[in-house]
Amino acid sequence: MTDQHDGVDKPVQPGGYFPRCQHTKTYAPFTRKLLADQQQDQSYQKRDTTATKEEIRVDTTEAKQYFSKHLLDWYNVHKRDLPWRRSRNPYYIWISEVMLQQTRVETVIPYFHRFVEKFPSVEALADAPEEEVLKAWEGLGYYSRARNLQAAVREVKEVYGGRVPDTQEEISSLKGVGPYTAGAVLSIAYNKPEPAVDGNVMRVLSRYFLLRDDIAKPATRIGMERLAKELIPEGEARDFNQALMELGATVCTPKSPHCLTCPVIEHCAGRMEGAVDALPVKTKAKPPRPEKRAVAFIEGAGENAGKVLARQRPKEGLLARMWELPHVLLPETIAALGPESDEAAMRCLSESLASEHGLEVEPLAPMMDAEHTFSHIHWQMRVYRCRFAGLAGRAAENGSAAGDSDDGNVFLWFGERELEQYALPNVFVKILKQAGSYRS
Ligand code: SF4
């Protein structure tokens, strides 16, 4: 009888855990010794997991050969034609991998084309003003990726003469380059046998090898990286790593995986065990902290007619140096955004903008609601149409950014030219589009 599992780690009797096929009642042709191997590794011994060394015993040779061969054969026939796959230029591959983090392939493709057209080389990106890079990234989110990429590319230009490093040590020392990006660039661009393990890959390996370790834990990732490296056939790192990513993205999907078309179904231990839906095991991250915010939509008059007042965020922190509509955090006494809290929210908006930024406005009426989720914060926003009444101590510049924004007190009237030039976080682009102020 097939063992049933609830997706939670549980101790296994020594020698008593071998996944069987649901139909034939026979054992999988290999069992796993991954954890036994990992026991010998000092770093892995420190992991916090309930899995035991008896739990997994693998004939890795057979598992590797089967998995790698069938996966590669499948990839050679089914791989998607993606723009970054037409090149082995490590700079292009690096850009694509950074863009693909947290972002879907379909979304990335047009951004990738525009980005490499605008910044076709390490030198072009290194020498570009940050504003231009952020503008090219506008809409992709997670803007620290763009800033780190440019900082790292500048180092590549200065330290490595413009050549993206091809060793683990050198590439990993670049800003923002973690184990996944390093492995992806080294393997795809240089065919080096380095693993590239992201969430997709951990899902595939968890299911195929029936690994119940919590993939949110760093120690599990280390173990997965070792396993993924063992699986790379000699001389095939480039295709194998991409095949593994491709399987995770298109077949072994988070929900309703397409097992019947999977090239490695025959020996997939997770499927034999009926545990696919419970894998991978991942503890839930803390939900983002909700924040209620009032946003000021301030239209200009006279020479600024048709423009909207924008503020540049401070040099450091969330969305550093990006432009936005001025907004303030509302107190917790405002339980919900809506008609019943408009009066209090508008009062708070005008008082906070005046005291924090020297910006005098008169909120007139609510315009729309919006929201945006960061990894750790969820902004619930209500936008109020406001009348501009003055900017104490400094005038809002008309047409050029006014100096460096250490404290976030740089304001600028945004017309079409500024919207083309400066980067705004997506949520403000959406607000401006809905208000008819942003056309593109
Ligand atoms: S058989 Fe299903 S669960 Fe197993 S690796 Fe393939 S798609 Fe994933």
From TrEMBL:
Glycosyltransferase in keyword set: no
Cofactor(s) required, per the database record: [4Fe-4S] cluster
SUPFAM superfamilies: DNA-glycosylase (SSF48150), Nudix (SSF55811)
Record's keyword annotation contains Glycoprotein: no
SMART domains (UniProt xref): ENDO3c (SM00478)
Catalytically driven reaction(s): Hydrolyzes free adenine bases from 7,8-dihydro-8-oxoguanine:adenine mismatched double-stranded DNA, leaving an apurinic site
Gene Ontology molecular functions: 4 iron, 4 sulfur cluster binding; 8-oxo-7,8-dihydroguanine DNA N-glycosylase activity; adenine/guanine mispair binding; metal ion binding; oxidized purine DNA binding; purine-specific mismatch base pair DNA N-glycosylase activity
Domain HhH-GPD: 99-250
Catalytic activity, EC: 3.2.2.31
Enzyme category, top tier: hydrolase
BP terms from Gene Ontology: base-excision repair; mismatch repair
Alphabetical list of InterPro entries matching this protein: A/G_AdeGlyc_MutY (IPR005760), DNA_glycosylase (IPR011257), HhH-GPD_domain (IPR003265), HhH_base_excis_C (IPR023170), HhH_motif (IPR000445), MIG/MutY (IPR044298), MutY_C (IPR029119), NUDIX_hydrolase-like_dom_sf (IPR015797)
Alphabetized UniProt keyword annotations: 4Fe-4S, DNA damage, DNA repair, DNA-binding, Glycosidase, Hydrolase, Iron, Iron-sulfur, Metal-binding
UniProt similarity note: Belongs to the Nth/MutY family.
Biological function: Base excision repair (BER) glycosylase that initiates repair of A:oxoG to C:G by removing the inappropriately paired adenine base from the DNA backbone, generating an abasic site product. 8-oxoguanine (oxoG) is a genotoxic DNA lesion resulting from oxidation of guanine; this residue is misread by replicative DNA polymerases, that insert adenine instead of cytosine opposite the oxidized damaged base. Shows a powerful dicrimination of A versus C, since it does not cleave cytosine in oxoG:C pairs.
Protein name: Adenine DNA glycosylase
Gene that specifies this protein: mutY
